[in-house]
């Protein structure tokens, strides 16, 4: 009898209905629980996709070292995928990331390099490319790697379509690398051009882990603005309040970017009727406890 390995359990995450937060409405609000992936976030999908496809092409082989810039979830997912495949992993991250994120990466055996909060993700990305140029590792580059959105085109999109029996009308997703929204949008729009794709970015001055307003020169090259119908600017307070309400009123324990996505879905629900709105819950809340956001 053949038993599956852990990578067989990346994807096929639950889609559940919100019971209290939507209030009295004709709309159905659904959330996809990506924290149920083995390494705890939606990034398990692209991490495994990028490594598996690079191995299949011969771009990398077991024993090689990968170098990647991350704000947290992708790094943890890549560390897991690298551990599964026997690959060494060096991760570069801003030092203001939570202790839980740092500890999770090193638990999987990854080496961690920290840049300052001021250098941010842009500095981390620059350093990864420098290290690659110095022969210290291979950069998969989640921001430019088409194997990132492909994971969502093949997984997240079809799952949502099937789980809603093709009734989805709106899809809401926070945008970081933009892989989730790009791949899912491409699949859903092939099924029905009427499905509205809504991206979420932080308001100016808001600091929401995992989502960004990129300066033009750092905008992920996998991003295609024609695949997004509208963008919601989300405030930090609204995202954090919704995140806490999800835990207290729905029993859904998640991070701030997920709170932002649901806050966006709730805003949208005020404007439409008889809609089936799906939002992505990117990860689990235990990744943020030391930051004090749940206090």
The main pleated sheet reads as: 6 strands, mixed
- How many beta-strand runs? 9
The average pLDDT value, as a whole number, equals: 95
Q: What low-confidence regions span 5 or more consecutive residues with pLDDT below 50?
A: none
Class of secondary structure makeup: alpha/beta
Order of helices and strands: EEHEHEHEHHEHEEHHE
* Number of continuous helical runs: 8
Helix content: 25-40%
Strand order of the largest sheet: 1-2-9-6-7-8
Question: Radius of gyration over alpha carbons?
Answer: 18 Å
Beta fraction: 15-25%
Terminal residue distance: 48 Å
From the spread of the alpha carbons, the general shape counts as: globular
Summarize this, please?
With 295 residues, this protein is α/β, with parallel strands linked by helices. Helices cover 37% and strands 17% of the residues. It has helices at residues 44-57, 73-85, 99-107, 120-133, 147-163, 179-191, 236-250, 256-269, and strands spanning 15-17, 28-33, 65-69, 88-94, 111-115, 170-174, 196-202, 230-234, 276-281.
């Amino acid at each position: 009898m053949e038993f599956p390995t852990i990578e067989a359990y990346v994807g096929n995450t639950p889609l559940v209905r919100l019971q209290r937060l939507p209030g009295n409405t004709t709309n159905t609000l659904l959330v996809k629980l990506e924290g149920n992936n083995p390494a705890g976030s939606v990034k398990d999908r692209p991490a495994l996709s990028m490594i598996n496809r690079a191995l299949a092409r011969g771009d990398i082989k077991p024993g090689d070292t990968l170098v990647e810039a991350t704000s947290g979830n992708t790094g943890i997912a890549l560390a897991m995928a690298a551990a599964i495949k026997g690959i060494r992993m060096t991760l570069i991250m801003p030092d203001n990331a939570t202790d839980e994120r740092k500890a999770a990466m090193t638990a999987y055996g990854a080496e961690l390099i920290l840049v300052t909060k001021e250098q941010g993700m842009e500095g981390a990305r620059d350093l990864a490319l420098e290290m690659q140029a110095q022969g210290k590792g291979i950069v998969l580059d989640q921001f430019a790697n088409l194997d990132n959105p492909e994971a969502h085109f093949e997984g997240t999109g079809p799952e949502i379509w099937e789980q809603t029996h093709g009734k989805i009308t709106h899809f809401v997703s926070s945008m970081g690398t933009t892989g989730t929204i790009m791949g899912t949008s491409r699949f859903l729009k092939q099924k029905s051009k009427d499905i509205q794709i809504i991206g979420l970015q932080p308001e100016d001055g808001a600091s929401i882990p995992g989502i960004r307003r990129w300066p033009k020169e750092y905008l992920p090259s996998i991003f295609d603005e024609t695949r997004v119908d509208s963008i919601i600017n989300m405030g930090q307070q609204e995202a954090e309040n919704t995140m806490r309400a999800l835990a207290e009123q729905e029993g859904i324990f998640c991070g701030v970017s997920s709170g932002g996505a649901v806050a966006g879905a709730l805003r949208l629900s005020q404007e439409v009727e008889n809609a089936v709105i799906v939002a992505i819950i990117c990860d689990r809340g235990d990744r943020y406890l030391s930051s004090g956001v749940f206090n």
